[in-house]
Amino acid sequence: MIKSYAQLRAETAARDRSLREKVMSLEDAAALVQDGDHVAIGGCTVSRTPIAMLWALIRARKQDLEISRSITSTEGDLLFASGASRHIQTSWFSQGIVWGVSKVMRHYTESKQARFEEWSHMSMGLRYRAGAMGIPFMPMRSMMGSDVAGQLADIKPFDCPFTGEKLLLVPALNPDVALIHVQRCDAYGNAQIDGLQFMDGDIAMAAKRVILTTERIVSNDQIRRAPDHTKIPFIAVDAVVEVPYGCAPHECYGLYEPFFTHLDYYAEITTRDAAGGVREYLDRYYYAPKNWAAYLELLGLDNILSAARRGRSIYDV
Amino acid sequence: MSRNGSYTASELLAVMSCRLLKDGQTVFAGVGIPLLAATLAQRLHAPGLTILFEGGVLGPFVVAGELPPSTNEQRCTRRANMLLTITDVLLLLQRGYVDVGFMGGAQIDCHGNLNSSFIGDPAKPKIRLPGTGGGNDIASLAQMIVAMKHEKRRFVEKVDFITSPGFLDGDTSRRDSGLVAGGMYRVVTDLAVLGFDDKSKRMKVLALHPGVVGRSVQDNTGFDLGIGSDVPATEPPSERELRALRELDPDRLYIA
After folding, report:
1. Does A64 reside within a domain?
2. Whether residue B256 has pLDDT greater than 80
3. For residue B2, what pLDDT band results from cuts at 50, 70 and 90?
4. Residues 276..305 of A with a Cβ closer than 8 Å to B: which?
């Protein structure tokens, strides 16, 4: 499962890393993802989740995607229920603690229709970091002695060659595609991320291809005025899609908070009937709308305004 | 939630665990009661408590009435000293910057091992739970305070699955497995404050909450606690503590 270093280098060498425009539609970006690809999802839990790109992948009827993410929320339910994925590697998987244990996650994993492969949070981070560093593994000091480690086939206990201490080696993750949503980037893919960065920088540098969705596209001049704010460089980016409210109903730092009323509604219909509720949700919000604007219309202007007012309030103090 | 006198079980948990945090410490707090109790401690006796959240936050001061629904949500970042990546904030545990790890638990055993992954046989579980998150990393690397409801089905002789390691099989087994730092320090419940025997690493009762007798703690525990007759009682939550707590969580997101 670890890519050979020769392959990793060859894949990077083969990419067009020139300063060129990469702006495209959600649908064209979705076409860059192949069935069976390992897709890493940026953000964490209900924060800066690239919902619009996942929405486009599910609408394009992608199959058998291998998913990885730091922590997985409602998007994991939808990937399982739509058949887009049957395997997610992550550290925690449920809608969010205030909504209880996800009935959809339970339905698909307990019936073995799909697999939730559990890694510790830090091990996921170190695996992406190893991938970003171009090395095949990372040593770490947690997970030892636990049943989390006991269930994982791809880890190795290791005695440090310098000190003799017991360590655990975790394998690098080099995703085929990284999906990352940002507050702003330019047409070349220089991305600025406000607030919490999660694992996105490492995920981007570990991946073979990076698809950025962004709240807005700014000029390259604006990027060059504050290059210290660039968190992902254009050389690593393959597609740029401008999608306002591209995380809805999840959060995008400083712009909008989670759409709580909508997430309560989602919890309610999936708690009542996991398989039926999630199918109803997919039909209504994923398959029926003719485009992203129509999806946002369904979420409702009052919900959008509430999320935006709360989101921007982070800068009030 | 059943009310016990003039406060709920969750309020009792938050106040009792808050008292264990000391000014000047660095605490890695999970979502729920730990987040609430750490934030409460900052307002009561520990204004210099440095909180870490796994979303990548160092030293925040969460706003009353705006409690975050996860430790990755923007409300966690209020008045923070620094935002960093998830991986880097977790590495502070490994580097040794964290005095206390503080989290909740679904199931715990006599050696303080926590399960938040599977109820029943992991190969054929009755319930698939959400999993470790940062729990395994925190419990592997820091001295731990756990806050949880005291019920027989939650306090078991041996957990179905060790998600976050306590003292494993007791004695020196934790250290022998390679976990050379940290370990369980206190378990705070709505009935008692518990600790661990220095040598055997088995759980024992250190103090009983107001109005609680030893027998009711034993009756709600699935293993023998060997409770003596001379266990001290904790001070009941004060009006000041409860008022500050309710100001923090007026919507009763975590203290319902």
Report:
1. yes
2. no
3. very low
4. none
Cβ of A145 within 8 Å of Cβ of B161? The answer is no
> Is B235 a catalytic site residue?
no
Is A97 at the interface with chain B, CB within 8 A?
yes
Q: Is pLDDT above 80 for B16?
A: yes
Helix H or strand E segment including A271: helix A260-272
pLDDT band, residue B5 (cuts 50/70/90) = low
pLDDT tens for A192-232 read: 999 999 999 999 999 999 999 999 999 999 999 999 999 99
Contact (CB<8Å) A97/B69: yes
Cβ-Cβ contacts under 8 Å, B133 against chain A: 71, 91-92, 121
Domain harbouring A193, CATH code: 3.40.1080.10
Q: Do A142 and B141 touch (CB under 8 A)?
A: yes
Domain membership flag for residue A145: no
B223 occurs within a structural domain: yes
Point out which residues pair with B164 in neighbouring strands.
B114
Cβ of A258 within 8 Å of Cβ of B73? The answer is yes
**Local structure of B26: helix, strand or coil:** strand
Q: Of A84, A78, A83, A85, which is closest to residue A104 (Cα–Cα)?
A: A78
Q: Domain tally for chain B?
A: 1
Residue B120 domain boundaries: 3-248
Domains contained in chain A, number: 1
Catalytic one of B54, B73, B157, B247: B54
**Interface membership of A257 toward B (CB under 8 Å):** yes
pLDDT at position B3 over 60: no
- Give this complex's ipTM: 0.97
Give me Rg for the CA atoms of chain B: 17
Per-residue pLDDT tens digits for A110-152:
999 999 999 999 999 999 999 999 999 999 999 999 999 999 9
Domain membership of residue A3 (yes or no) is no
Q: How far A187 CA sits from the closest chain B CA (Å)? A: 25
CATH label of the domain that carries residue B177: 3.40.1080.10
The reply to whether B128 falls in a domain is: yes
- Over residues A272-295, the pLDDT tens digits come to 999 999 999 999 999 999 999 999
Q: Which amino acid is at A209?
A: R
| Distances, alpha carbon A62 to alpha carbons A20, A72, A183, B176, in Å | 28, 19, 26, 46
Whether A192 and chain B come into contact, CB under 8 Å, resolves to: no
The β-bridge partners of A8 are none
Distance CA A134, CA A8 (A): 8
Please indicate, yes or no, if residue B256 is contained in any of the structural domains.
Answer: no
Q: Do A97 and B70 touch (CB under 8 A)?
A: yes
Residues on chain B touching A90 (C-beta within 8 angstroms): 131
Residue B1: pLDDT over 60? no
Name the residue range of residue A307's domain. 38-134+173-315
**Which residue carries 């791809």 as its tokens?**
A154
Q: What is the DSSP string of A230-252?
A: EEE-GGG--EEEE-TTTTTTSBB
Asked whether the predicted pLDDT for residue B4 surpasses 80, the reply is no
Q: Is residue A81 part of a domain?
A: yes
Sign of the C-alpha dihedral computed for residues A198, A12, A34 and A299 taken in this order: positive
- B220-249 confidence digits (pLDDT tens): 999 999 999 899 999 999 999 999 999 999
